[in-house]
Every structure is written in C-alpha cells, then in structure tokens.
Amino acid sequence: MNDKKCGLIAALDVPAPDDARSFLDKLGRATEYIKIGPRLYALGGVPFVRELISRGYKIFLDLKLHDIPNTVASAVEPLSQLGLWALTLHTSGGCEMMARSVAARDRAGSETKLLGITVLTSLGGELWEEVHPGCDMGLALVARAEAAERAGLDGIVCSPLDLDLLKGRARKLMRVVPGIRAKRAGAEDQARVATAKEAALAGATYVVVGRPILEAADPVAAAKDIIASLEEVSR
Fold this sequence. Notes:
Layout: E1 7-11, H1 17-27, E2 33-36, H2 38-54, E3 58-65, H3 69-79, E4 86-90, H4 95-107, E5 113-117, H5 126-131, H6 137-151, E6 155-157, E7 174-177, H7 196-202, E8 206-209, H8 211-214, H9 219-234
Parallel strand pairs: 1-2, 1-8, 2-3, 3-4, 4-5, 5-6, 6-7, 7-8
Helix pairs in contact: 3-4, 4-6, 7-9
C-alpha cells in the first residue's frame, strides 16, 4: 500500500461559469481542489478564478501553456500572482521554457505549483504516430518528465497508464493524473484511462476526475466514493 494519500481534484468541465457555480453548490466541500480548463477561463477569466479562490477552493488552472520561453514565462508571472494552487505548461516546449517559467513564478513570490503536461490522454497508437512518426511514446514521456524535473517544476501531468513507466524516474515530481473513469470505458475521446483506485495504486499523487462526478445523480456521493477508494489504497 502507499504511505501517502492520493488527493482528488474535481474537473469543472462544464459549458459556462454559471454551470460551474451551480455544480459547486451541489458539490460543496467534498473536495477543495478544483480544475478549470481553457473554456471556463475564456468565459470567466480572472474574475471567475478569483471568485472561486475567495470561496476557499484551491484552483488548478489547466491552460497547457506552450510557446517560446519568453512568451510562456511572461504569462506565468501574472498568472502565478492570482493565488492559484497550480498551473500547467506543456513539457514539449523544452527545458528552457520550463526553467524560465519557474524563474518567473519565483520572481513573483508565488507558491503556485507549476505542472508539466507530458502526453495528452487522448493520444495513443495511430494518433501519436501521426504527429510523432518513429518516436516511441514511452521514451518521449520519460524524457519529458526528466526535463521537467531538471527545470524545477513541481510536478507532471500524465495518463494513469504512464505511471508504471515513470517508476524510479523524476522522483521529486508529484504525479497529477487525469483520464479517470468510474470503470473501464469503451469508445471515448481519451484513449488511456483507468479508475481512481488503479491510478492511486500505480503512484498518482492526485487524480483529476470530471465525468464520473459531473454526470452522477449525486455528485457529492460520487466524490465521496472516489475519496473512499483513494483512502483504501493509502491504508
């Protein structure tokens, strides 16, 4: 069993800020960690982020920043001053991009955690080969994780099925794991998924869960069931 408890991040993958507010009214404080993606950020912006922070939530802003080093670092500086719990960059931007982003965060005096996206959970098989011909996904994933560690990032974001590949690698980094389902699913837009318990057993530090909570008749009960399965692993 793991000696560290795996935490739950609820993904607010809903159409608009009002939908997010309604969902959080139902969810309450079942978990304090909340993920906001590009759509909600585009619609609600900084005021929406600050609103949720003022309500006591720890916000994981998943923007997957990816550009030349100066451009990303210049965005990280103001974003890290919002009081976010975590912000994502894409590791494929390279070690310099990540390192300069860490420096920008530190100059801002922020405690925001910077997390590196390794390989999207939607990429697998032919989809990976289409844009990375001749490149082994496992080798790329390990190289990106190790670059994130050298750059000073706080963690990485990876598929639950990638956790075994990373055992003994980039040990300083937390593992934040999306692609979580209530059970193994059939056809969908994420190719590499697992249950929360499977991810925790494989070494996840946090699991990011959207649909199994958002689509549940009782979101609070669904969140509590997931938390219970994570606590079972840590015992």
